[in-house]
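Hi R.,

As promised on Friday, here is the backbone we talked about, encoded as structure tokens. Could you run it through your design pipeline when you get a chance and send me back a sequence?
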């Protein structure tokens, strides 16, 4: 599954100069439209000629010295395309100013290409990212332990697991790649395994010392940890191999949708890692995950590479089934299982929750490829994952890690639907949408849906506002007055 096994050795190309210290693009000679340019001494270890780093720091002052035509916005010049046949490869390889159907851009490039700018600001950003990643395990584990060790009902109601720390999407001008004129970076992914093919084209390039990225392909390879494909022959072979791919893991759900042309599409959600803590991950999965994780760094802020070294991870894959029997990977999600702090007695929680085998399941990485977004597939996938976790007797609570606004909204919508379905099915429970949900009902819903109290209360507020809106202005006024009274009473109790 390693793309390097399918790749031909690249043709070494000696850059030529136009006499003004600017390098001109030299085409490959093997008939495979290689647009990557490297010197004979370059090594595939993230360093270029004479051991020079492929991605180097460039200050704001140095950036201003680079001519404007040699500066490009990485978020615009890097494009992606998923291909599953030879025609798709040929179309994507053609140079065109207009975006091709199915082509999409990344949201972030900083993990691949260091952004030129103020060195102090870069250091602060790096420290912030490191702190965010560190809190993923150590900080969150301590927080979970503290929450679980305190059995106060009032504090348990006020838990805000997974609801804070929203990440703001990047500025449009972020991610400048300096040193290339008319730069275009095309990343092609095979349909089922996301094996990468990288093509780089430009009309002229400055000397290596004046580039923010000395060698773009090698900078990408450094993140992947192995070589990427750069020849059409290698990519065509990878496409053929993908056609035979069989999803790894256990199927947990399947559903169909109908598009605007009345064409029906079938999808399946697979889970990997349920028994990983006892039996390890399935064969071939480590290599497969190593192809998926680098893609996430283009689209998820502060995403780090997850490997099979940590058996606490669960992995979910959304596949689209094709007419010829093959599959396309269009969505991925990772969930981390934090071990619950052991309960001391049955008085602290229901009997079935006592013990050290329970987990807080935190949804960490979630991505549906851009061409498949805004069609309801993300909601179907997320609901399948939450339902699967709810069915697991070892799941205590399901939360969402620091999320982008769009991902947080998706989680809010799905959990609101789940809460509404649960409330509608309870014939013995009287629901008054004009008043806040009582604490005992929140506890009951939590035990069934395994959602944090803050998530349940937010979902109920959404449902209450929706109901009040249909009933008119007076119902909305009654709801907010009752909510104000309940909030004031809680403040007085804890004062």
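Update: got your reply. Pasting your designed sequence below so it's all in one thread:
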């Amino acid at each position: 599954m390693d793309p390097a096994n399918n790749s031909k050795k690249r043709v070494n190309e000696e850059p030529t100069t136009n006499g003004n210290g600017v390098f001109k693009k030299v085409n490959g000679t093997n008939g495979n439209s290689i647009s990557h340019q490297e010197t004979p001494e370059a090594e595939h270890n993230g360093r270029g000629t004479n051991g020079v780093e492929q991605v180097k720091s460039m200050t704001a002052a140095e950036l201003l010295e680079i001519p404007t035509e040699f500066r490009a916005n990485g978020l615009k010049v890097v494009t992606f395309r998923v291909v599953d046949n030879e025609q798709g490869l040929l179309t994507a390889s053609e140079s065109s100013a207009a975006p091709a159907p199915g082509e999409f851009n990344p949201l972030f490039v900083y993990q691949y290409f260091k952004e030129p700018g103020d060195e102090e600001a870069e250091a602060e950003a790096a420290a912030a990212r490191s702190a965010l990643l560190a809190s993923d395990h150590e900080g969150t584990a301590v927080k979970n332990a503290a929450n679980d060790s305190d059995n106060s009902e009032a504090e348990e109601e006020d838990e805000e697991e997974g609801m804070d720390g929203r990440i703001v999407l990047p500025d449009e001008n972020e991610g400048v790649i300096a040193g290339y004129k008319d730069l275009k970076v095309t990343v092609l992914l095979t349909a089922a395994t996301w094996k990468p093919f990288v093509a780089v084209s430009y009309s002229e390039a400055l000397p290596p010392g004046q580039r923010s990225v000395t060698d773009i392909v090698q900078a990408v390879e450094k993140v992947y940890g192995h070589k990427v494909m750069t020849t059409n022959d290698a990519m065509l072979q990878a496409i053929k191999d993908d056609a035979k791919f069989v999803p790894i893991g256990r199927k947990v759900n399947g559903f169909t949708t109908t598009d605007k042309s009345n064409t029906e599409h079938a999808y399946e959600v697979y889970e990997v890692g349920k028994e990983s803590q006892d039996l390890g991950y399935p064969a071939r999965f480590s290599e497969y995950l190593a192809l998926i994780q680098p893609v996430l760094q283009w689209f998820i802020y502060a995403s780090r590479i997850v490997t099979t070294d940590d058996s606490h991870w669960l992995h979910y894959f959304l596949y689209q089934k094709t007419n010829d029997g093959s599959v396309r990977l269009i969505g991925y999600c990772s969930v981390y299982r934090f071990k619950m702090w052991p309960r001391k007695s049955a008085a602290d929680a229901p009997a079935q929750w006592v013990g050290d085998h329970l987990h807080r399941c935190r949804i960490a990485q979630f991505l549906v490829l851009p061409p498949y977004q805004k069609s309801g597939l993300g909601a179907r996938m997320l609901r399948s994952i939450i339902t699967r976790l709810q069915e697991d007797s070892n799941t205590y609570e399901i939360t969402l890690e620091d999320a982008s606004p769009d991902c947080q909204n998706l989680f809010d919508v799905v959990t609101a639907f789940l809460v509404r379905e649960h409330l509608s099915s309870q014939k013995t429970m009287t629901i008054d949408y004009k008043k806040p949900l009582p604490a005992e009902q929140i506890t009951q819903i939590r035990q069934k849906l395994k959602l944090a109290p803050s998530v349940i209360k937010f979902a109920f507020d959404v449902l209450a506002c929706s109901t009040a809106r249909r009933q008119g202005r007076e119902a909305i006024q009654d709801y907010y007055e009752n909510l104000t009274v309940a909030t004031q009473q809680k403040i007085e109790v804890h004062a």
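One thing I noticed while checking it: The radius of gyration is 26 Å.

Thanks again,
M.
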